[in-house]
Give the backbone structure.
Amino acid sequence: MTGTEEVGAADAALLRDLRRMWTAADPAPADLAERVMFTLALEDLEVELAQLQEQSLAGARTAAAETATSITFHASQLTVLLTVQAAGAGADGTPLRRLDGWLAPGAALAVEVRAGDRTLHAEADADGRFALDGVPAGLVQLRIQPGGPLLRAVVTPAVQV
Amino acid sequence: MASTTSPRPATPGRGDRAAAEAPPAWELAARDFSDWRAGDPAGLRRLVEALTPVLWHTARAYGLNREAADDVVQATWLALVRGADSLRDPQAVWRWATVTARREAWRAARRDRREATTDDQHLDAAAPPSAGPENAVLADASAAALWRHVAGLTARCRRLLRVIAFDDRPDYASISAELGMPVGSIGPTRGRCLEKLRHLLADDPQWRVS
């Protein structure tokens, strides 16, 4: 047994039709490959990838790559809540965002935010709260550095803010 | 394993390689992986762009909602890049990625099912965002007919056909474990599912054989 079998011509044609149908009816989010590349650009991949639990905008992550306003990420030892607000525009006209975050359980951990080609830094307080102003709109990824009870760095999937 | 399967359509967006006689997708994946490992970062980008839709449909075949499917795709890539050193045979990269995505999707689906009340809810997640043949993306009457009749198949058929539609060299051993059927019955089951679908389509005037 080889574990695979050849498919007859008629079956192959019908499978091609099915492939086209699913590709049209339920495509991968248009920015999924881009977000994957963003994650893979991390220098250190020995991290835990948090899962996106909830995003407040219905239709977020769809082909339109809408902007999130409230996002929850879940990792084995940590939940990350993030709210995003518009915060004016930079000198070059780039829209800016303010991120308010909460790590649960609360812990004073260092938080890195990768936004485009910039990396911003914040420190969560003992309750796990942190805030960052002036984050350029676009793909953003958080990295929570290990410390205290957190043994391994947690990174979130990249999201549009 | 030599590929004698019928030529599969080239993955969209692959430019000049999308010729009629394009090599099978798994072989392109092997080349891209080798290029990347040899130091060409564009190889990884090509690999990600070509394989991500396949992983997506694989995850969705297991009834995951869009966000969970997204997570499965991301986790699969992270695992692949982390484990790239141990993946010595570039020819195996396609299968490694699809098997990993299926395993992750299967686990996530089981986790969800324990939380969801009915399996049906779960399977509905595989419906398109705005279901129904009037869906603009299925404006083509023929595609809409296909969609309608696929919905009439059993969940097991839908899952198996979606996995196979995007992966013409699936690893039957892992599918066997995940779908709870013996390896030897996957081929016949696939045949029966396609036969049933063909039968439904034959009775539908909206369907035209392409």
